């Protein structure tokens, strides 16, 4: 078990989603700091290492400690739900001890601690706007991140 999860971006997946439609099939690439089977270089973080989430506190709903899928072996590469989290629109930070979402979230009142790709550790408000959270979670969207998160 572990209390932290890798930040895989805004899509909910750490790999490219390809849709089964003809000519050409559309795809959605992963946007976070971790990508399945492919390492990333510092130069891949075009938004900057200081403004990209690397990993953060993993929310585990109260009374579901050591229960899949909320709290499970984080070193099992076959179950990414155990070791990764998305953040952004549709993936907000958990809002309380009994929040049932698979999300980032900590036991600190009003904040969740994150390590950023530059190695710094900073709190992010639990009530952060989902769009701003998405800007922090996407390593290369080219958009500025407001400073009041």
UniProtKB/TrEMBL annotation:
It comes from the Bacteria. InterPro entries: DUF1559, Pre_pil_HX9DG_C. Pfam families: SBP_bac_10 (PF07596). Residues 29-130 form the DUF1559 domain. NCBIfam families: pre_pil_HX9DG. This is DUF1559 domain-containing protein. The lineage of its organism: Bacteria, Pseudomonadati, Planctomycetota, Planctomycetia, Gemmatales.
